[in-house]
Description:
By secondary structure, this protein is of the alpha/beta class.
Amino acid sequence: MDIAQHIKELKASLPEGVTLVAVSKFHPVEALQEAYGAGQRIFGESRAQELVAKAKVMPSDVEWHFIGPLQSNKVKDIAPFIHLIHSIDSLKLLQEVEKQAAKHERILRVLLEIHVAKEDTKHGFTPDECRALVQQLPDLPHVRICGIMGMATLTDDETQIAREFHTLHALFEELKSTAFQGSNDFSILSMGMSHDYPLAIREGSNMVRVGTYIFGEREY
Ligand SMILES: *Cc1c(COP(=O)(O)O)cnc(C)c1O
């Protein structure tokens, strides 16, 4: 398993304008360092404790992205340095992000997670819940909503995956031209993982979150 080689191949294959988040959850710091050595600076983690521990030892120019389910009581741990939270799935969480961001005098960048997959285990707002949320968003001066994130159903049915990504893209465009009209910040459509990122890119993704393809299978 040559992590550096995989990073280079992947980067070379991504169209311009598509950002690679290297999902390093459950992998040791040595693996991240190898990816860093190959030029990777954006890493995604799904547990606050693990992210904080890795951030302490990795170089300070790494951009840390939080991609997993986030408990409100963990926001304070990542608020001082997190670059982007992909997984906002409730108004309550958004309000906690606002509170912690204010405390640290930062503006925190977030994505709204949208549930389009068939599995109930996945998180996020339905498209309608998302529309309702953004229409009545309270004043959150320390939060910047930069786009949406979603996952397709884990299936071999490419038609279904494409349809779900298409739904996400359509919602992204809709929000951009309505609730977030005139905002340059609302620009990120985060979709696509190891097994479906080429399809996600074809359906308009501009940020892919790839773990297994780079680092190999995770040991939980
Ligand atoms: C783990 C994870 C990924 C990466 O998945 P791979 O299949 O290993 O590429 C992407 N996004 C989210 C939200 C994840 O939890």
